[in-house]
Amino acid sequence: MRAPPQPDISDLVNGLGNLVGGGVDNEGTLTVTNCTFSNNDGLDGGAIYNDGMLTVTNSTFSNNQSTVEGGAILNNGTVNVTSGTFSGNHAPGSGGAIENTPAARRPSPTARSLATKPPASAAPSKTSKPR
Whole-model pTM? Predict the structure, then answer.
């Protein structure tokens, strides 16, 4: 019997609309099994940004990069990794493979939401005429 193909999430570059997770932005419950994440690029979390419950089993993270932290994974929630391979991942801040962000440093959902929304256009200013 032939083994099922291994899912491959590769060569994704995070667009300007999403600031986190070059491959995946998880804000719920995610289970990753027998997957390869390679050559992904994101602001925080080159391959995965986790703000929920993440379980990784028998998966490979290679050559992912983050602009800030978490070359492969940036964790703001709960993460469990079993039999994973991490190689060649990079972040200039902390967590070349995994950055486990302490609760005190986690942005609030409101702050994250505001950070990803385009700025509102400024209302025209009212000027008063001298009397």
Answer: 0.69
